[in-house]
Structures are given as C-alpha cells and as structure tokens.
Amino acid sequence: MKTTTPTVSQGPLPASRKIYHSGALHKDIRVPMREIALHPSANEKPVVVYDTSGPYTDAEYQVDIDKGLPALRAPWIAARGDTESYQGRLIKPADNGFLPPDKIVSEFPERRMPVRGVKGKAVTQLAYARAGVVTAEMEYIAIRENLGRSEAAQTAARDGES
Asked: Within a 10 A sphere around the Cβ of 51, how many other Cβ atoms?
C-alpha cells in the first residue's frame, strides 16, 4: 500500500477576511463568508460572498489531516433524534477495482460510522419541510443563498427603485 504525507494549503487569503453569519433559529450554525476589500477609490463597502474555501483559510482552525474535515452536520442530525449509527462495512477489493496492493492508497485513518433513519422515520429535508420543520441545514442554505438580498432591497429603495 502506498503511503503519502499530504500537505494542505492554509492561511488567510489576500485582500479579504473570513467572517461567519449565524442562524436566527439555529444559533449554533456558522455560515462561512468572505469579506472582500475593494480598492479605496471605489468608495464602496467590502463585497461579501459565500466562502467555499473550507476551514483551512480560518486562522483559528487547527489542521489535522488524519481527522479530515469537521462533520459540521453531525450535531444537527443527532439533535433531531431520528437517526442511528451503524457499523457499515469494510472496504472490499472490488471497491478499489481489484488493484494490486502496491497501487492502492492507504485507507483514511479516521473512520466515521454511517448514519441512517430509525425505523419508520423519513429523514430527508423534504420530509422535514412537509412536516413544517426548519432544519439547521435549511437555515444554512437560506443564509447562503439569500446573501445580500436585504442589502439589495435597501440599495434599490435608496436609489428610488422598487
């Protein structure tokens, strides 16, 4: 089996800073945003966009490549109380295309147990929506997708548009 020592680019990005927007219903969610500074001659506020760079551009994040990315949704899912962890299965040679051992990359050291809905529970976002439940995932997406919407409305009103 091949073993490699991975490296990860990390640290702040130029002319911007990472910020987080919190939820109103689910206070513990933190939607990563990037506040991008504009040239001073623009005389405009920084532009805020959704940040897809992951935790590696957060100066406070301690990287441990062997642990993988944080399981952000795990506490949200567990809090609903309608799922259970189970053992899952081990990797089989077929999963790696029956490659010889010297061609296979070593298995990721941190194994997380899979999760499934408990018997009789539909644990999809659609099922929650139909039941009138706003999940943390829904609020996260709403914050991400509606970024700048209220500011755009204020700008339109300021400029005499409706």
From this structure: 21
